[in-house]
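tool=predict chain=A
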Amino acid sequence: MTLVAYRDGVVAADSATWGAGGRVITGHNKKIRRLNSPLMAGALVVCAGASGVIARFHEWLEAGGKGEREAVKAGDGFQALIVHADGGVTRYDEEWLPFALQAPYHVLGAAEAFMLGALAAGASAKEAVRLAMVHTEGGAGEIQVEQLNPVLAAKASDVIGFDPLFPPKLWPFTPQGALPR
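tool=predict ok
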């Protein structure tokens, strides 16, 4: 299980790794990663699901999204959220298919409704995760917090061509025609 919240350039997540039967194996897993690939430099990615699938997803992203997507077994529960350097947000489903999201805040993983309520009430991303850890069974361990780098965001906007009405151009990650222009 994983708890992730995003608001105002900040991503927060719990740090637990879960085993069979819902037991915490460790509480020191780094779930939020900063991408270094040329097309997504500075973006933050956080995933939920089986650790092996998550590792292959990170490799696939760092390779520019080239090659075949992973065949994920039903029940693996894979999901990913990418916060691009310019603040645009993309969510990936269990088939590694992207869809752009436009909202002032986002959540991923267990206790999504609870965290959305906390964010709607004005909580920060870290506070939403902390509250979910206290009041639900979805997370454990230390809370990891990562912030977008504003210098990289400005550079990404220049390179990618930020349009405030639409999320960033996600090529090659968005299927052709998926976003209206």
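Residues 51-62 form the longest helix (12 residues). The mean pLDDT is 78.
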